[in-house]
Amino acid sequence: MTHQTHTGHRAVIQAAIEDWWITTDLPEPFNPHAVATQIDMYLAASGHTITPDPRKHPMPTRRTITGALLIARLTAASTLATAIRHQWGWTTAGALVTGFLTREAIRALGTRRRDRT
Fold this sequence. Notes:
By secondary structure, the protein is an all-alpha fold. It has two domains: about 10-45; about 60-115. It has helices at about 10-25, 30-45, 60-85, 90-115. Helix 1 crosses helix 2 (about 30-45). The model has no long low-confidence stretch (mean pLDDT about 85).
């Protein structure tokens, strides 16, 4: 394993992780909350803070995307049912809603893929 030394906030994060590694009983289960708390404490002690980027919109959640796709699937099924009954007004409305929901889910997936680091 190579050892790299970073500067600025990366040095603080590196020191926090090394301190956690040294002071933690390794056979115990990994506790991400404890690690995050320790890194946050180290950052605050060194004058660094983590803040959201105000220029970015929050990343869509998997739950939101799954929900939109589920509703799109339900509207597609009901659209098919109205088409079988020759209710063309409802068929058109259902097709529009299905298309809109599908487009939104595709955009959300693209946003998640683009914003992932």
